């Protein structure tokens, strides 16, 4: 019985000391969800020790945002803009988090039907207001989602998780 309590206590300490990565995404047709799953797989690499929260944009909130040490944002391109659900996430979290996240490292992945630049610009405008710090080039997938593009997403997740773990950003 004591060993069990000791293990639980040790796990609680370990969990509190791990750095935290938040992945927030929206997907309607499934391709952005597949990209998000690849990002999550990279973030969960066995050699990297971070706590990861994986949230749909409509379910993520200010508590998630204030919890994290780094964030990855994923959206489809809708009419040359980020998804409405991603915009809603920003709308719900901006004022409660205002001034509390300066320098938060972030990265973006976008599933684009056009060139993805409008969706990227819309996200960049908002994260500038949050004072987030971009630490990786955006992963923008135009057209078919193949293994090489999913690998880019996995590498993005791995990069962010390793950077958050090592406190590089």
Question: Could you explain the architecture of this structure?
Answer:
The protein is an alpha/beta fold. It is built from 6 helices and 6 strands, in the order αβαβαβαβαββα. Strands 1, 2, 3, 4, 5 and 6 form a 6-stranded parallel sheet that branches. β1 (20-25), α2 and β2 (51-56) form a beta-alpha-beta unit. α4 packs parallel to α5 (117-130).
**What is the helix tally?**
6
Q: Oligomerization state of this entry?
A: single chain
| DSSP strand tally | 6
Q: Which class do the helix and strand fractions yield?
A: alpha/beta
Distance between the termini: 41 Å
Note the run of SSEs as H and E: HEHEHEHEHEEH
Q: Whole-number average pLDDT?
A: 91
Radius of gyration: 16 Å
Outline the biggest β-sheet.
Answer: 6 strands, parallel
**Quick one: overall form?**
globular
Q: Approximately what portion of the residues adopt beta-strand conformation? A: 15-25%
Q: Helix share of residues?
A: 40-55%
Write a brief caption for the model.
This protein is an alpha/beta fold and 169 residues long.
């Amino acid at each position: 019985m004591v060993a069990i309590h000791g293990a639980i206590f040790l796990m609680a300490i370990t969990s509190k000391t791990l750095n935290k990565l938040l992945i927030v995404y929206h997907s309607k047709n499934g391709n952005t969800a597949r990209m998000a799953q690849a990002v999550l797989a990279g973030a969960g690499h066995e050699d990297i020790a971070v706590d990861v929260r994986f949230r749909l944009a409509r379910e993520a909130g200010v508590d998630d945002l204030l919890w994290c040490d780094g964030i990855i944002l994923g959206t489809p391109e809708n009419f040359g803009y980020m998804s409405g659900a991603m915009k809603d996430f920003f709308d719900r979290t901006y004022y409660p988090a205002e001034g509390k996240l300066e320098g938060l490292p972030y990265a973006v992945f976008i599933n684009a039907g056009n060139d993805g630049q409008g969706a990227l610009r819309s996200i960049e405008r908002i994260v500038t207001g949050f004072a987030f710090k971009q630490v990786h080039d955006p992963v923008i997938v135009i057209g078919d989602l193949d293994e090489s593009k999913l690998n880019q997403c996995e590498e993005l997740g791995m990069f962010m998780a390793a950077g958050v773990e090592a406190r590089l950003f």
